[in-house]
């Protein structure tokens, strides 16, 4: 059975870059790696509805924190069997966002912390009811909110189809979300966490040795 590794962090934190570095380190050592990013905007109808709602479609759907959270959760539930298959076929399955993203953003939108009603409700839905595969490790790629915002703005200018949505462009929301992420990591919410400095150089060899394959 492979190891399920999740990368979490703010929009613009550098999750894709971190995933690329971890993948390169693992494959250089002969390990097989499967990768997936949530939401699966091009592969799942629930994720498509999320994207459309964040662009202002579907009336007031985006205003419903729980409604949006359910759509995100259903996207993952529909991917669960494929995840389990990948875990049987690969040494490492690397995810860009997973359940903790839903917890952090939902709690932040409601001005709650990791001990609030939303995170408890979300845990009951995705972890208990949907029984999604449990991560072996969750990596919080930690960067200051302003750094993440600059990176997201640069990505928006330089990459096709990377326009920021309403959540990504809300600086206050991003700040609160970062605080909830830090709380989740400190509590080892659902499974073990490690915090990685997303501003300075990442030693991928050490990260893989001490955490990813540990």
Describe it for me?
The chain has 214 residues and is α/β, with parallel strands linked by helices. The protein has a single domain (3-212), classed as P-loop containing nucleotide triphosphate hydrolases (Rossmann fold, 3-Layer(aba) Sandwich), CATH 3.40.50.300. The protein is built from eight helices and five strands. It is globular and about 50 Å long. It catalyses: dTMP + ATP = dTDP + ADP. Keywords: ATP-binding, Kinase, Nucleotide biosynthesis, Nucleotide-binding, Transferase. Pfam families: Thymidylate_kin.
Write the layout of secondary structure elements.
Elements: E1 3-8, H1 15-28, E2 33-37, H2 45-54, H3 65-89, E3 92-96, H4 99-109, H5 117-129, E4 137-142, H6 145-158, H7 171-186, E5 193-197, H8 204-212
Parallel strand pairs: 1-3, 1-4, 2-3, 4-5
Helix pairs in contact: 1-8, 2-3, 3-4, 3-5, 4-5, 4-7
If you compute it from the alpha carbons, what radius of gyration comes out, rounded to the nearest whole angstrom?
16 Å
- Order of strands across the biggest sheet? 2-3-1-4-5
User: Strand pairing plus helix content: what structural class?
Assistant: alpha/beta
Helix content: 40-55%
Largest sheet: 5 strands, parallel
Total beta strand runs = 5
The secondary-structure element order is EHEHHEHHEHHEH
**Count of folded domains:** 1
Please report the number of helical segments. 8
Note the beta-strand portion: 5-15%
Mean pLDDT: 90
Predict the CATH topology: Rossmann fold
Q: What is the class in the CATH system?
A: Alpha Beta
Classified in CATH, the superfamily is P-loop containing nucleotide triphosphate hydrolases
* Uncertain runs: none
The assigned CATH architecture is 3-Layer(aba) Sandwich
Our measurement of the CA-to-CA distance between the termini, rounded to an integer number of angstroms, reads 14 Å
> Judging from the principal axes of the Cα atoms, what is the shape?
globular
Family: Belongs to the thymidylate kinase family.
EC number: 2.7.4.9
GO molecular function: ATP binding; dTMP kinase activity
Domain Thymidylate kinase-like: 7-190
């Amino acid at each position: 059975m492979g190891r399920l590794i999740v990368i979490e962090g703010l929009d613009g934190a550098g999750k894709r870059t971190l995933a690329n570095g971890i993948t390169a380190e693992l494959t250089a050592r002969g390990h097989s790696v499967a990768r997936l990013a949530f939401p699966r905007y091009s592969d799942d109808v629930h994720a498509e509805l999320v994207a459309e709602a964040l662009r202002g479609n579907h009336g007031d759907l985006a205003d419903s924190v729980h409604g949006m959270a359910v759509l995100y959760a259903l996207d993952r539930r529909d991917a669960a069997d494929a995840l389990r298959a990948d875990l049987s076929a690969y040494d490492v399955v690397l995810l860009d966002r997973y359940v903790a993203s839903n917890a952090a953003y939902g709690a932040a939108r409601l001005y709650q912390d990791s001990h609030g009603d939303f995170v408890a409700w979300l845990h009951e839905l995705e972890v208990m009811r949907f029984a999604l595969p449990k991560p072996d490790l969750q990596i919080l790629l930690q960067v200051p909110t302003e750094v993440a915002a600059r990176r997201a703005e640069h990505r928006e200018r330089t990459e096709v189809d990377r326009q920021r949505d309403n959540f990504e462009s809300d600086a206050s929301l991003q700040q609160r979300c970062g605080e909830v992420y830090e709380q989740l990591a400190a509590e080892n919410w659902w499974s073990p966490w490690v915090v990685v400095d997303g501003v300075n150089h990442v030693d991928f060899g050490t990260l893989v040795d001490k955490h990813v394959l540990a």
